[in-house]
User: Which sequence fits this backbone?
């Protein structure tokens, strides 16, 4: 059974700091990796996707993928209180995304 | 452009009843996937449809069924509701036949409460 593991948190960081969110996955054949942000009571919002080993940057967000270690991470620079949410890691199979349980991030002013 | 739309927003049903949830994908997207998210968990895959054909099915009982229409909208049906079916039901839209390899965009969800 494919598994995606995330620390549940909460991860607490002060405003302006770098938040680092981590995810490991069990299916070595996985090819696509996604980060979704979910505010309480809302649906997941896609914020980053990465398909190749290495780093991918988009604004304050950087996704990092290491397929050999089966590890994907999300860095949020200059964290803002509005970044406080649950971050879901998702790994792509043929027709399905497998999600982790999410990590709650709290950014304090 | 309009995003993924779902209806209804909220729904309260009694055990044993049946429910139908609806989804319209982003214009131009032909793939719709359904997910169930219970409190404190990540979304769990239920079904994927592309061009009106079922392309994937998750580990859910036969009480769950779905279909996709010629205009690419979709319905999810759940029969004989159980208390454990209470969850946020999410519809995701993609332009690709293999949506899990590409970006999927979620609708606002339908919050189902079974009493």
Assistant:
């Amino acid at each position: 059974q494919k598994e995606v593991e995330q620390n549940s948190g909460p991860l607490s960081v002060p405003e302006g700091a770098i938040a680092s969110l981590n995810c490991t996955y069990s299916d070595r054949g996985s090819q696509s990796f996604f980060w979704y942000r979910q505010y309480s009571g809302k649906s997941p919002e896609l914020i980053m996707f990465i398909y190749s080993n290495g780093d991918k940057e988009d604004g304050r967000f950087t996704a990092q993928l290491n397929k050999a270690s089966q590890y994907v991470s999300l860095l949020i620079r200059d964290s803002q209180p509005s970044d406080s949410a649950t971050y879901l890691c998702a790994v792509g199979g043929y027709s399905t995304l497998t999600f982790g349980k999410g990590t709650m991030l709290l950014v304090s002013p | 452009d309009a995003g993924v739309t779902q209806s209804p927003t909220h729904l309260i049903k009694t055990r044993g009843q049946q429910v139908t949830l609806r989804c319209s994908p982003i214009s131009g997207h032909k793939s719709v996937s359904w997910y169930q998210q219970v409190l404190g968990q990540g979304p769990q895959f239920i079904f994927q449809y592309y061009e009106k054909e079922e392309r994937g099915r998750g580990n859910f009982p036969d009480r769950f069924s779905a279909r996709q229409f010629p205009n690419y909208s979709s319905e999810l049906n759940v029969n004989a509701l159980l208390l454990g079916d209470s969850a946020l039901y999410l519809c995701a839209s993609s332009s690709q036949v293999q949506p899990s390899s590409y970006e999927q965009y979620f609708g606002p969800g339908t919050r189902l409460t079974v009493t």
